[in-house]
Specification:
This protein has 439 residues and is an alpha+beta fold. Helices cover 36% and strands 17% of the residues. The chain has 2 domains: 89 residues, no CATH class; 275 residues, no CATH class.
């Protein structure tokens, strides 16, 4: 299609013209940081999570903008959960055997265990914090179920001066400034939670809820843990998130024209014998039609290698100067600049994967300077390593709450294991990949 954008100037929208320009790289790569507001820490019953008390929400926002990090965290969660949790007993030789306990089966059903554990592991990898609510039975004799509280809407109460542990938990969908008083739930003593429950007595526990505080802490943190990869947030992740913005700006703000076509003013009179009799509108339509034919020729891949032939005339004054009717000038492709942006993107992706400890071959990312994005053997070995290092994380996402439940409910010797497919063998030894194991 040909359109007139100014008097005597026409632009085509075919393949021979594209619009791209980069204006102000600094303006399209904003630093993503959380800025503190005027919140008065002393007026809150809970400990602020970040300077503006929106740290977990800010993390979610930044991660959601980055497909590489989002997908990689999802992979970590999928590999971690594998085929789900299984109650087991451990044998003296170190092996594990599934158990059939009707009380545990009921507990799993009441807790909607697959959904509960999916959310908990997601919270663990995203925030390194998770909040488990234990719900007592109506008679107070058992823990009937567990429930997950979303970290974005959860806060720890401030530790009393005469205590060595947090005693209150607050939940609100409107942090940092809830209009109504947040829901408050008592937090069990993280050092002796079962003893605290038993000392209350069954009558005092009927239908009550409590929060289990995870006893492990990351370096230097008192209230809220911080994943090791959070160092990426205002560094490589910020760069990675800014690159699509830069590319979009390049595509929207810069016009890339492959050909500059100059047509001598008198060409139209010589081309069309009735030119002088045409109205201005009719002349414009003739020009558009002719330019469309030229644009189709220049943009059609079938015309690659063909010659474009035009005439020239001799200037009427000196009878020496050659004046072409049509002059074509090929223009530089400014999209060459994109290759530098691509290199930044690749480096940022590698840093993101390194930061969360995921081998890039598992998600199709090859190492810098490499040409292989993951052969079968590379992926198998990477998956084996990933499963081995997952054992620590699996312990941290089950033991803190399950040990409390199992001990209080009298399920002595009952543990939780993860059922996963054994990927350590090659296809010729395990063609169906159906051999599973408990870890």
């Amino acid at each position: 299609m040909v359109s007139m954008i100014d008097g005597g100037i026409f632009v085509t929208s075919g393949k021979s013209v594209a619009v791209f320009q980069l204006n102000g790289m600094g303006n399209v790569m904003p630093k993503m940081t959380t800025q503190p507001d005027d919140t008065n820490r002393g007026s809150k019953d809970w400990e602020l999570w970040g300077d503006n008390d929106q740290y977990p929400a800010d993390v979610v926002t930044k991660v959601d903008k980055n497909p590489v990090l989002s997908r990689s965290l999802l992979f970590r969660k999928e590999a971690h959960i594998a085929h789900g949790l299984v109650p087991v007993k451990k044998n003296t030789d170190g092996t594990m055997q599934p158990v059939d306990n009707k009380e545990i089966t009921t507990f799993f059903a009441n807790s909607r265990m697959p959904l509960f554990y999916n959310g908990l592991v997601d919270d663990y990898y995203l925030h390194k914090n998770y909040f488990v609510e234990v719900i007592m039975s109506k008679d107070g004799k058992k823990i009937a179920s567990v429930n997950r509280r979303d970290p974005v809407h959860s806060r720890w109460g401030r530790m009393p001066e005469n205590k060595d542990h947090v005693t209150d938990f607050y939940f609100s969908y409107n942090f940092p400034n809830p209009q109504k008083k947040p829901l408050r739930i008592e937090v069990l003593n993280e050092f002796q939670p079962v003893k605290q429950l038993k000392e209350r007595g069954h009558a005092a526990l009927k239908g009550k809820s409590f929060i289990i505080r995870v006893p492990f802490k990351t370096r230097g943190q008192v209230y809220y843990n911080k994943p090791e990869w959070h160092g990426l947030l205002d560094g490589w992740l910020s760069i990675s998130n800014s690159i699509p913005v830069a590319v979009k700006s390049l595509m929207e703000n810069q016009m890339l024209i492959k050909w500059h076509v100059e047509i001598e003013a008198g060409y139209w009179e010589r081309k069309f014998s009735d030119w002088a009799t045409l109205t201005k509108t009719e002349q414009e339509e003739r020009i558009k039609g002719h330019l469309q034919i030229m644009d189709d020729f220049l943009s059609d891949t079938e015309n690659a290698g063909k010659a474009f032939i035009s005439y020239f005339r001799v200037d009427g004054l000196d009878q020496k100067t050659q004046v072409p009717d049509i002059k074509l000038t090929a223009l530089d492709n400014k999209l060459q600049d994109l290759k530098y942006i691509t290199e930044f993107q690749r480096a940022a992706n590698s840093e993101v994967l390194f930061g969360i400890g995921l081998d890039g071959t598992l998600v199709g990312q090859n190492s810098p300077g490499g040409s292989e994005s993951g052969s079968g053997s590379n992926k198998r070995e990477a998956m084996w390593v990933n499963q081995q290092v997952s054992n620590l994380h699996r312990t941290l996402t089950t033991s803190p709450w399950w040990d409390v439940v199992a001990e209080f409910n009298g399920w002595y010797g009952e543990h939780l294991a993860h059922r996963e497919i054994d990927t350590s063998q090659t296809i010729d030894k395990n063609p169906d990949k159906t051999t599973d194991k408990l870890t």
